[in-house]
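in:
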């Protein structure tokens, strides 16, 4: 065919019976050389392998072997060893500094060389086609027909068996090694996740520490305090970060939840660690400059709905310093958890904001916990404590902390970095990242206002405790064991109907269909009800101003799915939910959360910076 390069005339000397399967040559960069430079236009892959260059830039001369007695399923495309080595040499000369570009070792790659020297009359036929792309290559294969072997070989069973072994080894050369590597990777993944789970359980006194600890332990009695020592007596600090959806470098919220293992030494964990979860301390830090921003395009943010403490408005320049105080004594032990359910935020100056919580039942302001310790000055600080850093997809949150100027990797007392995704994977075998809402549902924690950084941090730490304790109680996790409603799923129809939006089915890496984010932030009103199925409860959803349960979580709420969206590579659709106003009030004007009313304080109130919550007119 005109325009095609003619097959090169290469002298096939010394070993002219030796052939290499073309399949492994196509995968040299990733399978053999481990060169993953796909994004570089001048890299090995894009220069010699991508965009059909593998076929058009080198004058291949293909052979094939297809015998109905040896490999009846289809032809094996081969290249003479001389051509294969010449191709590798061409690539090596193009990239002389890359020492990874070598011809594969036949010992490391069994089946790499198919040697027909010992089989009389058997020689793979040469193909006259010179395909210039993958489509032409496939067309060439489809036209092939099996051939009969020379009787000098086919009439000798011992030769036929040996030939069959050679062809089978060459046919699966690349495939077999890929499967082995996948199996090794899976084994390594399972080992690493189980090690992470054991470390967390040892830190919580649920498993004996040391290299000789038994893998199989008697089920835990959740009514008794932990029987083992708390390995290294750590403080577990969970971090969650929310960023501006339009400016991914702008951090809008940071949630920090803390559990000091010294506080739970004499406390029985309870089912799913419910008693330990009561000891979690939480902080919700909001960047003052972005206090009027709410994410709504890819997720439905709810920065005003922190459920476990008092939101704190921090100037952007001070955020790193304030975050740093959470990693020193008293480790966020300033605020009571759970807080009263309502708050009023007043902005008096661009750098000054105050938050007041009100209790409608008492008609007065609810003070902070008077028994909580205050920050300890450096001169009287206690001895440095060991820290376990926890998160849900922790690496992402650590990267955001680094953006604001706080690098947790510089802390010498961090002994372990944990991730609830990893803990859940250890218990289910699921290699994909699982949504926080799904994990909460499985451990019987009612999730309210996910996508609020403070709430997410509390829920993530509570979920980690529940997974560790639940495993030692003998509970099972995963899709087959997840608690379910009457139809096997959470009944979200009332929520979606009330939201008046279109639910978008999102298929994540784990091929799990999640609820659309349109319902993520919807808070049911005091008169809302929902069929809870076998989940228990009275079926009523309480308002956020209603009573809280023993865990500090509002009772009776459905769990919403959290979206592990990354602003680097999101692939989400915006919901049809009504847009929220982003118009900021003038300084000195009071904002009543969850209402559409801006309240201007009286002059006397403006002096003190406090005002009682005012209910907007109907």
């Amino acid at each position: 065919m005109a325009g095609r390069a003619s097959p090169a005339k290469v002298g096939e000397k010394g070993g002219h019976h030796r052939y290499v399967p073309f399949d492994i040559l196509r995968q040299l960069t990733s399978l053999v050389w481990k060169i993953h430079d796909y994004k570089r236009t001048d890299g090995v892959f894009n220069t010699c392998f991508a965009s059909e260059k593998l076929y058009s830039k080198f004058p291949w001369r293909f052979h094939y072997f297809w015998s109905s007695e040896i490999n009846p399923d289809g032809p094996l495309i081969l290249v003479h060893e001389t051509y294969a080595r010449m191709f590798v040499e061409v690539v090596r000369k193009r990239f002389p500094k890359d020492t990874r570009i070598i011809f594969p070792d036949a010992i490391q790659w069994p089946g790499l060389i198919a040697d027909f020297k010992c089989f009389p009359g058997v020689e793979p036929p040469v193909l006259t086609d010179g395909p210039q792309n993958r489509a032409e290559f496939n067309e060439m294969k489809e036209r092939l027909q099996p051939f009969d072997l020379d009787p000098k070989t086919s009439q000798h069973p011992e030769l036929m068996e040996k030939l069959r072994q050679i062809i089978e080894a060459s046919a699966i050369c690349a495939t077999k090694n890929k499967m082995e590597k996948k199996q090794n990777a899976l084994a390594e993944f399972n080992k690493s996740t189980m090690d992470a789970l054991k470390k967390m359980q040892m830190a919580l006194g649920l498993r004996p520490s040391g290299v000789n600890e038994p893998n199989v332990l008697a089920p835990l009695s959740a009514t008794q305090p932990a029987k083992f020592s708390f390995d290294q007596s750590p403080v577990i600090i969970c971090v969650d970060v929310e960023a501006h959806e339009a400016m991914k470098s702008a951090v809008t919220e940071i949630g920090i939840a803390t559990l000091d293992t010294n506080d739970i030494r004499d406390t029985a964990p309870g089912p799913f660690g419910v008693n330990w979860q009561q000891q979690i301390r939480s902080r919700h830090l909001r960047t003052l400059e972005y206090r009027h921003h709410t994410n709504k395009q890819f997720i439905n943010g709810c920065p005003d709905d922190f459920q476990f403490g008092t939101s704190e408005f921090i100037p952007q320049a001070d955020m790193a310093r304030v975050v740093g105080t959470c990693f020193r004594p008293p480790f966020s032990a300033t605020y009571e958890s759970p807080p009263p359910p309502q708050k009023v935020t007043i902005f008096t100056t661009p750098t000054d904001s105050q938050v007041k919580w009100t209790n409608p039942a008492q008609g007065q302001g609810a003070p902070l916990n008077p028994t909580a310790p205050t920050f300890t000055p450096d001169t009287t600080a206690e001895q440095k404590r060991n820290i376990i850093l926890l998160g849900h997809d922790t690496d992402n949150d650590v990267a955001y902390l680094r953006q604001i100027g706080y690098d947790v990797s510089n802390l010498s007392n961090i002994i372990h970095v944990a991730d609830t995704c990893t803990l859940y994977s250890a218990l289910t075998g699921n290699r994909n990242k699982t949504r926080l809402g799904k994990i909460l549902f499985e451990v019987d924690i009612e999730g309210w206002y996910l996508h609020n950084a403070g709430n997410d941090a509390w829920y993530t730490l509570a979920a980690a405790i529940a997974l560790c304790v639940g495993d030692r109680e003998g509970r099972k996790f995963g899709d087959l064991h997840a608690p379910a409603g009457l139809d096997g799923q959470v009944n979200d129809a009332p929520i979606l109907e009330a939201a008046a939006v279109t639910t978008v089915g999102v298929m994540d890496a784990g091929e799990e269909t999640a609820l659309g984010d349109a319902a993520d932030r919807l808070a049911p009103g005091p008169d809302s009800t929902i069929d809870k199925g076998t989940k228990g409860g009275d079926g009523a959803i309480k308002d956020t101003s209603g009573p809280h349960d023993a865990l500090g979580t509002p009772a009776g709420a459905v769990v919403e799915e959290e979206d592990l969206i990354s602003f680097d590579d999101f692939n989400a659709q915006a919901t049809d939910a009504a847009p929220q106003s982003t118009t900021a009030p003038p300084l000195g004007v009071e904002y009543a959360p969850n209402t559409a009313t801006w309240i201007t304080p009286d002059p006397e109130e403006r002096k003190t910076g406090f005002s009682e919550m005012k209910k907007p007119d109907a």
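note: Residues 1-14, 335-381, 480-618 have pLDDT under 50 and may be disordered.
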